Amino acid sequence: MAGSTLEAAEWQLISGDDVSPETSHDLALVQNGDFKELFESPTTRQTIGADILDASDPAVTKLREDLDYASFVEARITAQHSAIPADERPLWLLRLMCIGVGALRSFLQTNVTGPPLFYDPNKELIPVCLAEDADFVRALSKAAVTFMTVDGESPYHLASHMLLLTLAVSIMNSPLLAGEDAPQTASWWRLRVNFLHQRILSEKTGTLYKNIVADINDVVPRLAGQSNIVQAMLLVERAMVDTYFGNDARALKQLEDATELTGLKYVLTGVMGKRTQWQQKETSQLVVLAKSAEQNNVEGTKPKTLDLNDDTLLEKISFTDSKTLTPKEDSDLPAELASLDAGNQPPLHPLDATILLLFTETIKNTNPEDGTTREQMLPYAERVLSHSTNWEVYTLGLLVRSRIESTRSRTVERSVLQLQVVVDQVIAETTGKRTATEAESDDTTVAPTFLPQPKEGESASIRERLLYIHQLPIPTRWELEAELASRWSSVGGLRTALEIFERLEMWPEVALCWAATEQEEKAKGVIRKQLFEDDSEQERAPPPPQAPRLWCILGDIENNAAHYEKAWTVSNNRFARAKRSLGRYYMNINDCQKASEAYGDSLRIYPLHGPSWFALGCCRLELQTWDGAVRAFSRAVSIDNTDAEAWSNLATALLRRDPSDDDAPVEQSRIRLDDEEEEDAAVAAADPQRNRKDALQALKRAAQLKRESWRIWDNYLTVAATLQPPEFQDMIVAMKNLIALRSRSKGELAVDTSVLELLVQHIISEDLNQEKPIGYDPIKPGLAKQVVELVEKEVVPLITTDPRLWKIVARLNLWRKKPRSALEAHEKAWRAVNSRPGITDATEKEWNELVDATVELVDAYESLGQMERTDGLGAGELVAKDWRFKARSAVRGIIGKGKMNWEGTAGYGRLEEALEGLKA
């Protein structure tokens, strides 16, 4: 019974419901943000070794020598665990998890949310015999940055109290919290720790991505029986992970599923209103109508908000009186939203508000970067900012709105200043120094800010700030300051931006700032100052944490491959960006072999970088390693399903690959890679046309994504036509689009004559091969009707000089039982040849072509002229009563034109024979 009670308390911590101290004092401390009490407790200090008094203790001696705090903690908790009786281990593991969670949330408090810690956590985390050694503490904190480096990507070296996150990472990733006795929610907290670890690194890493995915897969089965809110929380966190790693389509699906669980109803719609002060006539304004399933009418505290104060734009849209003109009768609106007042909507549940803000990121990432996209994003932020139900949710809303407004001239000032206010607030609340004595006397020292700091009761509690922090992509303090610097730079405040970057010691950004203003020497000076000892060419030992990135930037500035190699070496062959830069360098000098090797090395470190897979595929196309190109482009499109060029290149590689290869086939919705099942491979190998079929699917996807590319449609048409049997439906679609794209510039050359001939031949043969051919039925839908419409509406208006096209038209009309139209087409085909300038004075080959056209016309007159017309006013009459006269006239005309040059030739003789045969 006690076990089930503790499990329930674990889930209460996740959901935000009150945890009773009687159930678990440690869980209650974590929930309420009482981290000082948690770390000062004798149990915690004993568990992590902070209570060791003897400086000669072997563990302390080892820690002093190698500065490996993570190993110290791991050894300590392993020894503690082995000494605990088996029946007490579940409770001990729960306390261990609470320490890890407390360390995680303390790190968030001091680097993301505030308020500032009023104690020094370093003194609570390391052995008491070392805690007063300031030099050792600084060295240990610096070593923690190195420990947190993954795949050559380092965290921000000035982050506050990195030991807290080191402790959290060490505990939550310990095998002890992955066993059967581990708490139910341990894997979820491990997911949160690892994702935060990833977010504070300079680039994405493959190692942490694998760990995060494994954590998610471990959490999902544990959610059975939990509340909808808890399940929605995980979906939101998964969406954050997917968005971070670039899988926006899947993130959007997770968010939509989350709305189903929370009961959030929302819609982006238009409501009549005014946006400017001088606007007389109301127009439709974009607005998000949203309503939570659980009504929350309590207004929470919120950060400082700046007014727009514009002489034209209103502070917020003035919507039409909802009682008469809101879209209540709009059938597209859900019933729950039809009665909402667009200008006075009810407060949202904080998790629902979070979901709306996350929607803005997916909208940005899945649409073009233009004004329309930003106009779609802004209503989501405005809806959240209409009420404050959580401090951090509102803070993110301000950030999202600030980013959107940064591109508009009338709002850019408020955008920059609002970001400045948020940054000031976060800096003050994460770096303000406050001691326990000062807390008791209420004499707090904080950093100066642009606006006055909130008074008592005007700021949120630690618990409120941390309640939804794991569902919010709130930037860290230094990320916010860096964003502010970039914003100042974008509006011309380069000096301000440089001052911020220099204060943050973000030397790569300082160098990039100088390089962006074409002051490359200053940029190189900044980099060399970090990489080398003063006034010398001797490299710093050990190198700074950002050395790999600095070497890469130096390589970019100087276009020097040796610098990229150095970055790779300094990172112990783990910095993927170094190899990506090297690959780009070799591609620029057309050394595809070395570029391929470099991109391959980078992808072994971080295999989720889509552009690298694309570049690798291009290298392999140049090297004619078709199978490798197929693999590379398959990976590229599996990462980014909207890359039309990757789909097109995949088709190219598939078409040239040896059909005997037994790799997995490519499907439009899913790409199988090296882990293909043997049964599927056997089926694929048995189909000799597998590569062409896969290529057609790839081209179909490429054409959907890039409809304006005639080259893709041309390849699509060619592949569809060369399959056995051909894909006739695809051929029609491709030809229509190809004609639409190229007809203006190419005319009849936009028509692929061979493919059109194949289409016409197919529908005629299909009919004639039946037991009772029925000919053409214009009422019956199907392929035949589509071909006829294609020819009549798209092809015929374009024909000018190509006799072959007229012959195709003639054949189609004859099958349609329109002999008069067929004969007219034959006449036009003959005229197209006969009207060529100087054809009778050209080569014998061209003369023979004219002869052939004339003989074919004679045959057409003879076979069609005596038929009865089936259409028009003259139905029932002969197609051409004077067909013999017309035929003789045509032959005599050509004989006369060619007599001087071609009399006595075989072609001339054929014309004479044809004329003889026309005698009555």
Tell the overall outline. Answer: elongated
Q: Report the biggest beta sheet as strand number plus sense, adding barrel if it closes.
A: 3 strands, antiparallel
In terms of quaternary structure, the protein is single chain
Total beta strand runs: 3
Percentage of residues in helical conformation: 55-70%
Strand order of the largest sheet: 2-1-3
Task: Report the sheet-strand fraction.
Answer: under 5%
Calculate the mean pLDDT score and round it.
87
Cα(first) to Cα(last) distance is 114 Å
Put simply, the count of helices is 45
- Specify Rg, calculated over alpha carbons: 37 Å
What would you call the structural class?
mainly alpha
> Which consecutive residue ranges, at least 5 long each, have pLDDT under 50?
322-330, 433-448, 662-684
Give the tally of structural domains.
6
